[in-house]
UniProtKB/TrEMBL annotation:
GO molecular function (one): oxidoreductase activity, acting on CH-OH group of donors
A Pfam family per the record: FMN_dh
Protein name: Alpha-hydroxy-acid oxidizing enzyme
Binding-site list for glyoxylate: Y133, R168, H279, R282
Active-site positions on this chain: H279 (proton acceptor)
Keywords: Flavoprotein, FMN, Oxidoreductase
Domain FMN hydroxy acid dehydrogenase: from-to ranges: 2-381
InterPro entries: Aldolase_TIM, Alpha-hydoxy_acid_DH_FMN, FMN-dep_DH, FMN_HAD, FMN_hydac_DH_AS
Family note: Belongs to the FMN-dependent alpha-hydroxy acid dehydrogenase family.
Upper classification of the organism: Bacteria, Pseudomonadati, Pseudomonadota, Betaproteobacteria, Burkholderiales
Residue positions binding FMN: 81-83, 110, 131, 159, 255, 277, 310-314, 333-334
Length: 381
């Protein structure tokens, strides 16, 4: 039995990933901002929701398939954008995209991925979304968006909760930056994982093609931030987003919405969906947990556009709870990331299998035979 086949939960895959990665690299993927209270609360919010199952229903067969943003999905789930995956598993972005295509769900490529827009489209054809960070270099940003359009990506995801980088103290303590380097502060941690370190030394660390050749940043900003956010534009606003909406010919998803007051202007400028997200607790510490924010955003959207959710998904029952509270689907970041970090494409497939199996089981135990039957009547209180 392989390492990933022996894992029966997302937490098992997390432990497997931790066992093979140097601590600074694991902390980069695992950590949150400052005291990590929002990171923890994303998970705690799901634990606070209790299910109220219906009984005596014929649940011998359960159909998890649905429509996400006008296209079919085998279950109400998409892969969230995750950056720098290749530092945890070489070729990890392609592995995640292939696992998503095989599972019949959308995959979102991050601006800070270690694979190019064209590489993913060529090696992992499926339902592809491209996530664009708002770079200060607008010429680069526009070129990336145009390339995604040319490569037939069906949706553009604009992340709006990163005007500046969050204070990620694990990275600061570990002396971790981009490009990732081994220095005096983290030498022993890398030496403790010789297989990973030898691979990086012999084959060189991967690069982030979409960010290569970026102009040097203001050194005064660098001191305030950790790995992320150094080249992003804090002046980006609704008017600037409206101009991007005019440039992009297909579906637009706005990710990073937690305040219901932001929903109406996003609908007016032409957003096709919003994602309730706090960047996995990696930006503003003390921000609201995404599941707690979901109800207000769903109410503000009033059925006019779909509302997706990410942050804290670790179980199929978490997906069920999000659906019951009004989400059209979820995006998984760390849950599927743990899989690829533990075992590449096989690990990502294992993560998706676990989530699908748990979601189906939860539906059966709660009396739902299809996604459309999951609703607030199956929650307690």
């Amino acid at each position: 039995m392989s390492r990933v086949d022996a894992c029966h939960s997302i937490d098992g895959l997390r432990r497997a990933a931790r066992s093979r990665l140097p601590r600074p690299i694991y902390d980069f993927f695992e950590g949150g901002a400052e005291d990590e209270t929002t990171l923890a609360d994303n998970r705690a919010a799901f634990a606070r929701v209790r299910l109220s199952p219906r009984v005596l229903r014929n649940v011998a067969s359960v159909d998890l398939s649905t429509q996400l943003l006008g296209g079919p999905a085998s279950m109400p789930l998409a892969i969230a954008p995750t950056g720098a995956v290749g530092f945890g598993w070489r070729g990890g972005d392609v592995a995640l995209a292939r696992a998503a295509a095989q599972a019949g769900i959308p995959y979102t490529l991050s601006t800070s991925a270690t694979a190019s827009i064209e590489e993913i489209a060529d090696q992992a054809p499926g339902r592809l979304w491209f996530q664009a960070y708002i770079l200060q270099d607008k010429e680069r940003l526009h070129a990336l968006i145009d390339r995604a359009a040319s490569a037939a990506y069906e949706a553009l995801v604009i992340t709006v909760d990163l005007p500046v980088g969050g204070k990620r103290e694990r990275d600061l303590r570990n002396g971790l930056g981009l490009p990732m380097k081994i220095g005096p502060r983290n030498f022993l941690a890398f030496a403790a994982r010789p297989a990973w370190s030898l691979d990086m030394a012999l084959r060189r660390p991967p690069v982030m093609p979409s960010l290569q050749g970026m102009r040097k940043i203001d050194p005064n900003r660098k001191a305030m931030e950790s790995v992320a956010g150094r080249n992003y534009d804090p002046a980006f606003d609704f008017e600037a987003l409206a101009r991007l909406r005019e440039r992009w010919p297909r579906r637009l998803i706005v990710k990073g919405v937690v305040n219901p007051r932001d929903v109406e202007p996003l609908i007016r400028l032409g957003a096709d969906a919003v994602v309730v997200s706090n960047h996995g607790g990696r930006q503003l510490d003390g921000g609201v947990a995404t599941l707690d924010a979901l109800d207000g955003v769903v109410e503000a959207a009033a059925g006019r556009i779909p509302v997706l959710l990410d942050g804290g998904i670790r179980r199929g029952s978490d997906v069920f709870k999000a659906l019951a509270l009004g989400a059209a689907g979820v995006l998984t970041g760390r849950a599927t990331l743990y899989g690829v970090l533990a075992g590449g494409q096989a690990g990502a497939q294992r993560a998706l299998h676990i989530l699908r199996d748990e979601l189906q089981r939860t539906c059966q135990l709660c009396g739902a035979t299809r996604v459309s039957e999951v609703g607030p009547d199956m929650l307690h209180g």
